Amino acid sequence: MEKIPRYDSTDTLSWVRSESSTPVALRQLALDLFTVRGWCTLGAGALLVFCAFLFGRHELMAVGVCLVVLAILSWVLTSKLRGSTQIQRELVSAEPSVGDVVQIRLGATDPALIQEKLPEEFGPGPVLNAPGSCDYELLFGTRGIHQIGPAQQIITDSLGLIRGMVDVGDSLNVPVRSRLIDLQRIANLGEQVLVGEARASQSSTADYYDVAIRDYQQGDSIRQVHWKASARQGKLMVRQENHVATARALLILDTQAEHWCRTGADLHLVIPQGTQEDLASSPRFETALSLVSALGLRFAGNGFDLSFRDLSGTPLVSGGIASGSQESALSNFDTFHAATATLALTPNIQSSQGTELLGSELYKDLLDSRDEPVIMVLGELTVTQARWLAGLARTVRRVDLYFILTHPERYEAVQQELSRTGWNIHWLPATSGVGQMRGE
Asked: Shortest CA distance to 281 belongs to which of 242, 255, 302?
């Protein structure tokens, strides 16, 4: 079995980028399809027509017109008729993330020579000798909406006057989510965060086999009497209220642009969005987004109902799923993870005092989450903001705070302000990022 070809956007040494020397005007009019022989035929015909006018020779006119018509007719038939091949493109791998291998199947039913058009960072795509299909694999290095296609059909004529590529078929938009990393080797998160206190809600189940029973006590309502159990025990028995633990966690991601693209050390990344305008980002923010996604998956896997917010308190995903099981919690996380393909940085939000880091809505949510785990992933903040944030430690106790900084050593004053909170604080240099957390 032939090995499926793989194209890696991070492997820039696997191919050589070559700029086309054909003038833009010729490419726009598809006149670059003429080969050297085609241009010579067209030029010879034009020259004979000119000579026929100059010398008054009808036979030169006839030959010249025939050569010009031959070249033009070959161009029209080849570019228009043979460019109508139907292309089928199928995404075999569902819901890819950064670093995942994405398998795509390209097929065509008409006889043709097709070259797939990949995003620029991948280089030349595979060639399909249709009819038939071929599979290939892509390894994306950035999240976003990546556009594949339209494919290009390699066309030629029997006289060798025309040879080139024309666009054929539609494009395929592939949404790529943020990278998911393995956090099993992170010791500083602490398993107690995942198995700690959970908010309880009263169950509405009333079946004998789902609820606990106890002896009747004075003051119990007659409605609580479990008659089947009373008949079996020979005395009054009542239903014990059954509580189902529904754990909740609040994950806060700093999305303010100036916290991630402040200095020259923060390289600017472009996040493609298909036919829409590209998004701006930086390696530090991509690391933060990967960290939030990984932590979210870990909490969801333990049945936590997740709420993803930015610093203003705005949900990072619209809607929400009230989760009471691990399956629904994972579904809630999957909604967020899918949204990371289009998640953008936001302009800086200035508060009225200029010191509060969090919006009023998020501040209220934190007060309601005083006994629940809170995960905050931040870029940069001032000493004044750190002092204000540390004031929340009086009411919000279970906080894991992650900072992803270019130069953590320059934030000694911020570290001193936060060291008195009793929170779990992690200072991560952007040069190592999530790789350091994995123990690599």
From this structure: 255
